[in-house]
Design brief:
Strand content: over 45%
Structural class: mainly beta
Low-confidence stretches: none
Number of strands: 12
Distance between the termini: 25 Å
Largest sheet: 8 strands, antiparallel
Shape: elongated
Radius of gyration: 20 Å
Order of helices and strands: EEEEEEEEEEEHE
Helix content: under 10%
């Protein structure tokens, strides 16, 4: 993509982005999901991207901390069924919950700014529990651990955001 400032007759930025996703069936109800993502932006005012959060590097902040003009990320998850059918008896009738899936995940990535020579490599791993609410929405609970190769060097994360363990609840679109 190319962005221009017509008012000042200037070429602002350009970017190249790639997002590859693949789902491999391991059985009737089990799947291995892989996502590879790359981003590069340059020019006078390059665009920045955030790779933290539940749709990126799980366990890291969603906005403003894991930001860069160059970034790459790899997400992997092994999904398998935990409960196929669960019925709860209530005074108003029976309530049947949809399938609950378990997942083992591992994420790794890095976001660089043009002014940075290098930043630490970030990652997380853990277990997740998910329940689809129809074809478009999902409830997900992630329990995991964060890691870094050089003590989160180059990122302005608070002490709480650097603690190894995390628990995160997500409600959003089902992917």
């Amino acid at each position: 993509g190319i962005s221009s400032d017509f008012t000042n007759s200037r070429f602002d930025s350009y970017l190249l982005s790639g997002d590859w996703r693949r789902y491999f069936r391991l059985g009737r109800h089990s799947t291995y999901a892989v996502r590879a993502f790359g981003f590069y932006s340059g020019g006078d005012r390059p665009r920045r991207i955030n790779i933290g959060g539940t749709l990126g590097l799980r366990g890291y902040p969603e906005f403003g901390y894991i930001v860069g003009t160059r970034a790459y990320m790899l997400n992997q998850e092994l999904r398998f069924p935990l409960l196929n059918h669960l019925t709860l008896g209530t005074p108003f009738g029976d309530l049947t919950l949809p399938q609950i899936q378990g997942g083992l995940f591992g994420d790794i990535g890095k976001a660089l700014l043009h002014s940075d020579s290098d930043r630490a490599l970030l990652g997380s791993y853990g277990i997740s529990f998910r329940m689809a609410l129809g074809p478009v929405a999902v409830l997900r609970l992630d329990l995991g651990r964060r890691f870094s190769d050089r003590r989160y060097e180059g990122y302005s994360l608070s002490a709480d955001q650097r603690t190894p363990g995390f628990l995160h609840f997500f409600f959003g679109y089902n992917y």
